[in-house]
């Protein structure tokens, strides 16, 4: 896995705000039909895998992630993380 995926999204983030911006970008590109569903799923899964401690604490999204991403985007992230197993 490289540090930057094909969409120019960094996978390893320094801050929760940077991570939120990347999550928003991926989901917005999907909603705007700029990337397909499979690419969105893979990218969100990769972001979650390498930034889990910045994304989730005590089983809940961190305050910054919640505030920056919003409810609708996090519903998509939940579905991707909890429902799909894609290699």
Throw out a few tags for this protein.
single chain; 87 residues; mainly alpha; two-stranded antiparallel sheet; 62% helix
Protein architecture, described:
The model has no long low-confidence stretch (mean pLDDT 89). 62% of the residues lie in helices and 5% in strands. By secondary structure, it is mainly alpha-helical. The protein has a two-stranded antiparallel sheet. It is built from five helices and two strands. The protein has helices spanning 16-31, 37-50, 52-55, 63-69, 71-83, and strands spanning 56-57, 60-61. It has one domain. The longest helix is centred in the N-terminal third of the chain and has 16 residues, at 16-31.
The proportion of strand residues reads under 5%
Measured between the Cα atoms of the first and last residue, the distance is 12 Å
Q: Report strand order across the widest sheet.
A: 1-2
Order of helices and strands: HHHEEHH
Report the oligomer.
single chain
Mean pLDDT score: 89
Assign an overall shape: globular
Q: Strand pairing plus helix content: what structural class?
A: mainly alpha
The overall strand count is 2
Q: Tally the helices: what do you get?
A: 5
Structural Rg: 12 Å
Helical coverage, percent range: 55-70%
Overview in brief:
InterPro entries: CLB_0814_fam. With 87 residues, the chain is mainly alpha-helical.
Write the layout of secondary structure elements.
Blueprint: H1 16-31, H2 37-50, H3 52-55, E1 56-57, E2 60-61, H4 63-69, H5 71-83
Antiparallel strand pairs: 1-2
